[in-house]
Amino acid sequence: MLVVRLRILALLIAAPSLLAACKGDSKNYNVNPQGRDRSSPTFASRDSARQLGPGDVLIMNTDSTLELGLYGDSIAAGLGEKVLREIRTSTDTSTVKGDGFGASIEKLVKRSVAKAMNHELTYAVADIKDVRYEGGKLEFIWKDGTKMHLFESTRSNDKKMSETFRPEDAERFVSAFRARKASRG
Distance (Å, rounded) from C-alpha 47 to C-alpha 49? Predict the structure, then answer.
């Protein structure tokens, strides 16, 4: 369980935009694009009813902690079902004992964390020049030519998140992205 908690903590540290979700509402939050030639990615609640359409693709990394999807004109990146399941279990407020101030704070924190973790970053396909799988890494390039740092955090086994996708899944995502870009002109 300690490894799970450390993994979740690492993901939290790697995604400073998660702080925006702690404001307590379901609005979309834009992440600062640092003045580059692109729009801001959106940090919003995961669409649990979303279906894959023609040409869409959804992949997960090897341990199902991250998912990456191409949906229409957007790319969405978020925590995988494995992590979300672990978070739901560890943030279950029904296990909180007592009804005093401490118990109230614990429930508030658990609800806030659970809500924040059910969010994803969404990028416009138009803002991304290319996606490639090279040297065992899935890489994204902004339309201004700079490298995105979407999966650059390091996991406990000294691999970057960008290196934890199966080659066949990464190649499938790259192919779907390039087909989408070609069809949009």
Answer: 5
Element (H, E) at 128: strand 128-134
Contact 161, 73 (CB under 8 A): no
Residue of 83, 80, 77 whose CA lies nearest to 150: 77
* pTM beyond 0.85: no
**92 SS3 class:** coil
Buried b (16+ CB within 10 A) or exposed e, 36-66: eebebbbbbebeeeeeeeeeebbbbbeeebb
Query: 43, 29 in Cβ contact below 8 A?
Result: yes
Q: How far apart are CA 150 and CA 117, in angstroms?
A: 17
Q: Categorize the per-residue pLDDT at 27 as very low, low, confident or very high, splitting at 50, 70 and 90.
A: very low
Contact (Cβ atoms closer than 8 angstroms) between residue 74 and residue 86: no
Instruction: Produce one character per residue of 72-89: b if its CB has 16 or more CB atoms within 10 Å, e if not.
Output: eebbbbbbeebbbebbee
Cβ distance 156 to 3 under 8 Å? yes
Q: Which domains are seen in the chain, by residue range?
A: 2-86+120-184 (2.30.29)
